[in-house]
Amino acid sequence: MKSISIKAFAKVNLGLKILEKRKDGYHNIETIMQTVSLFDQLNISPNDQSIMIMSNNPNLPCDETNLCYKAAKIFLERKCKKGGVSIHIEKNIPIGAGLGGGSSDAASVLLGLELLFSLNVSKKEMESMALAVGSDVPFFTYGGIAFVSGRGEKVEPIQREPFFNYLIVFPGFSVDTKCAYEQIKFLTKSENYIRVLSYNFNAGCTVDIGKLLANDFEEVMLREYPELKMIRQLLIQNGAASVSLSGSGSSVYGIFYDKKTTDSALAHLTKKGYWVRKAFSIKSSEIPKFTFKE
């Protein structure tokens, strides 16, 4: 029986602006998301019974609350497919780290099932299924770099995709995104550099990116979690050209411009006991990255 192995790439937020709360309870946002080379590996195969989720990570729920389960259920129902699918998730992206691992996994299930069943799903229908799973999922059906707004459903790909080298640092704890939103509502500043950053990227300009990487969650998260502030300072001290929180955290990343400085910073933060990974930009043309197996 044919199965598919597909990579689910993580993302970082290059700036994040929290706007007004919507009637549906979500907040409108403006952000630039970019897929990076850190990935989970998914193996998907059809079965005659039900949707089954398995993982190498015992902390990952493998029931109906898993976004991959939701994605598979929505896809099978909307495309009128009988039976089920077996999905094994090899987790490499930390859970609750602001790197979009769960959303990327779910998007990869949608893309993987389209390929596995040899279907031609329109972009509009794929986006509809993705949004039904979760707010960040539509972006991952594109990948690359995009200006994302609304509650995550409005994805505008940036045509000139800049390349960055990253160090991503996970402090060993996750952040409750809902609690982060509740704390930020009185602290959101009026300045908005996200559209300026998007314009610069579309124009092929990455100069002074560090001055524009404003993430509204940082004021709350760096105060609430002093460890994040320490990681931020360590990245700057070790040569990062730009540093930011990804999403609501808890991961902090640094952008580096040369290999020697990157490797030196990697060694220094690793010695401090942190989970640290090198990563680089992944273009939209590289997604989905998959192989079929018999």
What report would you give on this structure?
The chain is an alpha+beta fold. It has two domains: 3-158, Ribosomal Protein S5, domain 2; 165-280, Alpha-Beta Plaits. It is 33% helix and 29% strand. The protein is built from ten helices and eleven strands. The chain has helices spanning 67-78, 101-116, 123-133, 137-142, 177-184, 194-202, 209-212, 218-224, 226-237, 259-271; strands spanning 3-21, 27-47, 52-55, 84-90, 145-150, 154-157, 165-170, 242-245, 252-256, 275-280, 290-293. Strands 1, 2, 3, 4, 5, 6 and 11 form a seven-stranded mixed β-sheet that branches. A four-stranded antiparallel β-sheet has the order 8-9-7-10. β1 (3-21) and β2 form a beta hairpin. The longest helix is centred in the middle third of the chain and has 16 residues, at 101-116. The termini are close together.
What's the helix-strand series?
EEEHEHHHEEEHHHHHEEHEE
What portion of residues belong to β-strands?
A: 25-35%
- What is the global morphology? globular
| CATH fold assignment of the largest domain | Ribosomal Protein S5, domain 2
By CATH reckoning, the class of the largest domain would read Alpha Beta
Please tell me how large the radius of gyration is. Answer: 19 Å
Tell me how many strands there are.
11
Which CATH-level-2 architecture of the largest domain?
2-Layer Sandwich
